[in-house]
Give the backbone structure.
Amino acid sequence: MEGDGGRPDHQRVVLGSLGLFTVLLGAALPLIDFFIVNVALSTIGEDLDAGPALLELVVAGYGLAYAVLLVLGGRLGDTFGRRRLFIAGLAAFGLTSLACGLAPDPWVLVIARVAQGAAAAMMMPQVLGTIHASTRGHRRARAVGLYGATQGLSMVVGQILGGVLVAADPWGSGWRSIFLVNVPIAAAGLILSTRTVPGTRSARPEPVDVPGTLLLTAALAALLLPLTEGRASGWPVWTWVLLAVSPFLALAFQRVEARADRLGRTPLVPPSLLRLVSLRRGLALLPPFGIGFGGLMFVLAISLQQGLRMTAVTAGLALAPFALSVFFASLAGPRMVTRYGAGNVVTSGCLMQFAGGALLLLTLWHYWPHLDAWGLIPAFAVIGFAQGLQLPVLFRIVLSDVPHERAGVGSGVMTTTQQSALALGVATIGSLFLALAGRWGMRDALLVTLLAWLGAVALTFVLSLRLPPTGSCGGPSSSPVRDRGRAEQRGVMAPCR
């Protein structure tokens, strides 16, 4: 095994099956922990005597730290070695999970959740960076497909696992078990990672862009913090001030990055990376997709338990068809991409989501509140299959033309976009649901928020029409074999078709 820093990307290393399993385990933990809290918030509030504002911070603190530090985590992995950062992030994630599980009061829990989000941001970009640097051709396409499937499954499994653990109450731990369960998993991952994950780093390490990092952190915090905390806090003045300032911070970030690029420095998000057509068009789909999905899962977690009076276990198991559909779709996706093309698969997935959403709306309209988990299976199965088709393909599109030496930066930009969108979905669609539920009742609030989710799906559909229907992920192609050879020569991902 290489030294801690790893071999430069131009020196060939190979990621084996067990190594792939290990990094995918690391990819699953952060998203599981983002969603696992949804079903335990009421229990945490009762046990720690925490009000709505503090409970919102338990969710927002993790999501905010995770989102704003992802690009920095990718840059550090490129510079100091991806395996080194992966191991450090995994160890920190296990320790901060232990701190969350042992928190004696809500403020300690909030602080521990922020630290847990930072640990996740250190670990997560190294997964795709390692895959990008240590696989080629079909193996890379398969690995990225499995990564996308892991992401989709983790979002659903988080809520299922949360419901099961809270209800099972192992050793009287109650809600604390949703955090403590991470500790042995992280320990197993550490043992595996030291033996199976190859060390890689960028052949041309780039220094950290401090001004860009600070401005990106400020811009995302100014947007996400008031949106996630505003409703519970009664929308005080500071929330409106931050929202008003956020676009100016984003503009300042863009100008600082462009100036650094012109002066020959290395910006946090290189403008040349954003000029890649495949990355730019793929990234454009992640915000509406993530906003819709994040909001949908948050709303379902509340509606199934408080509206349909399901237990935590029943509510979790009601989502099992969703998770199974995501899994089977991820297996079918590569064959469908080969046959029909990446763009057509994403567009078809949007149409399938419309069908599943319409079925869910009709089911809730006619049978609420006399509806059990069995009645939700058809709609959840269709929606899950659609999303399981789309997410892995979107990841492949985004990374298809990213050079090896910028693998960490590219994956950091992608995961930052995805995580920010998930947090925005909880903040916007979730806040809309909670506001309407108090006025109109839970069923009507749920129907309205489902329409908002379908609006996000519609936007994803429109943007998907700009993707190449066939050929490579980065653009039309008449010869997939020739394009794959060219891609290998340039050191980027093989075409999606």
Q: What stands out?
A: The CA atoms of residues 433 and 446 lie 6 Å apart. Residues 7-208+268-490 form a domain with the Growth Hormone; Chain: A; fold (CATH 1.20.1250.20). Confidence is low (pLDDT under 50) at residues 471-497.
